[in-house]
Design brief:
A hairpin with a 5-residue loop joins strand 5 and strand 6. It is globular and about 40 Å long. The chain contains no helices and eleven strands. It is mostly beta strands. The strands form two sheets. Strands 2, 4, 5, 6, 9, 10 and 11 form a seven-stranded mixed beta sheet that branches.
Length: 115
Amino acid sequence: QVQLVESGGGLVQAGGSLRLSCAASRSIFSSFVMRWYRQAPGKQRELVAAATSGGSANYADSVKGRFTISRDNAKNTVYLQMNSLKPEDTAVYYCAASVGGSFSWGQGTQVTVSS
């Protein structure tokens, strides 16, 4: 397993942008599947973005075209660039990594979007 620490959350106005970072305790190889989840108040945790080992990225319909997941292996960091933020994007965002049968979660970072 890999230790993950998210950062970059905060309060932003609707239409604004935030870039979340997820720092890993070890190198992130191409075989790692990196994901971002979020959990809004009173709702279930949902998958919002995934970077597959094949190099492709998948997004929830609610964020497609606005969010971008990326990876910087040299910095052992995965990012979630969030643009055109909406109030419904308000949630705690969690980074996750999986490889070789392991699955690791970060502690989460709060994102609040004001209307």
